[in-house]
Fold this sequence. Notes:
α1 runs parallel beside α5 (83-103), α7 packs across α18 (371-404) and α13 runs parallel beside α18 (371-404). The chain has a single domain, classed as MFS general substrate transporter like domains (Growth Hormone, Chain: A, Up-down Bundle), CATH 1.20.1250. Helices cover 80% and strands 0% of the residues. It starts with 8 loop residues before the first helix and ends with a helix. The chain is globular. By secondary structure, it is mainly alpha-helical.
Amino acid sequence: MAVFSSLSRQQKEAVGLLQIGTFLEYFDLMLYVHMAVLLNELFFPKTDPHTAALLSAFAFCSTYVLRPFGALIFGWIGDNIGRKSTVVITTIMMSISCVVMANLPTYAQIGVSAAWVVTICRIVQGLASMGEYVGANIYLTEIIKPPSQYPAVAFLDTASSFGGVMALFVATIATSSTSAFNWRIAFWIGAGLAVVGSVARTRLRETPEFLNGKRRIKRRIEDANYDNNKKVSGLIRGANSLPNQKAHYKTLISYFLMSCASPLCFYITFMYCGILKKNLGYTAEEIIHQNLFVSILGMISITLTAFLSYKIRPLFILKSKVFILFFFVLLTPHLISHLSLSNIILVQVVFIIFGLAINPAYPIIFQHIPVLKRFTNASFIYATSRALTYIITTFGCVYLTEWFGYYGLLIIMVPITLGFFWGVNHFEKLENQNHHQAHTQHPVSINPDELKMAG
C-alpha cells in the first residue's frame, strides 16, 4: 500500500497488530449492540413499549456510563506503565466478558439476575473497548510521522467498522428464522478472537515518545537531586518544557465537543432508526439485515476518508463533512415524520457516510496534549463525551419526541453538530499558528496552548 511504503518493518507490524486487535474488540462489543433487538427480549422482562424503550436505553447506556472511571484507571496505566500494557489488558477483559455472556442463562431461567449480569458484562466491554481504542490511536500517533501517520491512525476506524460489519453478519445468521446457528456461538467466537488478539499484542514494543518523556522527567529529577516527592512535583509543575505539563483548557474542551458527535451519529444510524423500523412492523431479522447493508457503506466511507487523509488535510475533511451533515440534520425530523422505510434508510445512509468522527485528525489533537498526560486526558474525554452523549441521546430521544414530536431531535443534534464545528475551528487555528512558528527565525517546539500557559 503506497501510503505505508515509507514505514519501517516495526511500524508496519504495529499497524497490522493494532488493526487486528481493534477489529476483534469491536466485533465483540458490537455483537450485543446489533443483536439488542433479540437479546433484550431474552435478558430483560417483557413490558409495555414505553418501559421497554427505557430498559433498552438503560442496557445500551450501561456500556458507556462507567467509562470515565475506567478512563482514569487506564489513563494512569497508559501514562505511567505504558501504552502496550493497556492494549493487552483490554483485550483480556473483552475475552472474559464474552465467555460470561456466552454461558449466561436467560431472564426466563434466572429472572432479573440475567439483566444485571448482562449489564455488568456490557460495562466491562465498554471499559475494554475505550482503553483499547484510545491506546491504539495514541500508539500509532507516537511511532509514525505525517503524512503516513494520518491514514495509519484512521485505518483503526476501518478496523473497528469492519468488526461491526462482521458482528452484524454473525447477528444476521444468528437471528435468521431458517438458521440453526445459536447466538451463543457468536460470543464464543468473540471470546476466542479476543484471546488471539491479546497474545498477538504482546509482540508490540513501547513507543519511543513515551519512553523519551519518562527519561526526560527522570533526568530532570536526578540532575536536580530531588528526592522529596513534594519537591519533585513542584519541579515538574514549574517546568513548562517537560512532557507531562497540563494541556490548555480550551484544547481539552474542543476535543470534548468533537468527541460528542460520533456517538450521536452512531445512535441515530443504528439504534434510533432500528426502533423506527420496529415501529413499522419489521422483525429483528429484517432490521439487522438492513443495518448490515448500512454498516458496509459506512466502512467504505471510513476507508475512503483514511486514504484521502494522505493527500488532503484531515481538518479540511472534517470541516467538509460537518457542513454537509448540518444541513441534512435540519431535514431529518421532516423525513422521519413521514415514516417510511425509504426515509429511514436515507437517514441511516447519510449519517453513516457523512457521520462526524475525529479520525483522521486524532494525531493533530494528540500533539497538543503533553505526552505523559496524553493517555489520561484523551481516554477521560473520550469516555466522558460518549457517556454523556449516549445518555442524553438515548433517553432524550424517548422524551423529546414525546413532547415535541420528531422535531425534538433537533434539540440534541444541532448543538452537538455546532460543537464539533467549533472544535475543528480551534484546532485549525492551532495548526496555523504552528505553521507560522515553523517559518519564523526562531521556531520552537512548544505548541500555542503551551505558550499561552507560559505567558
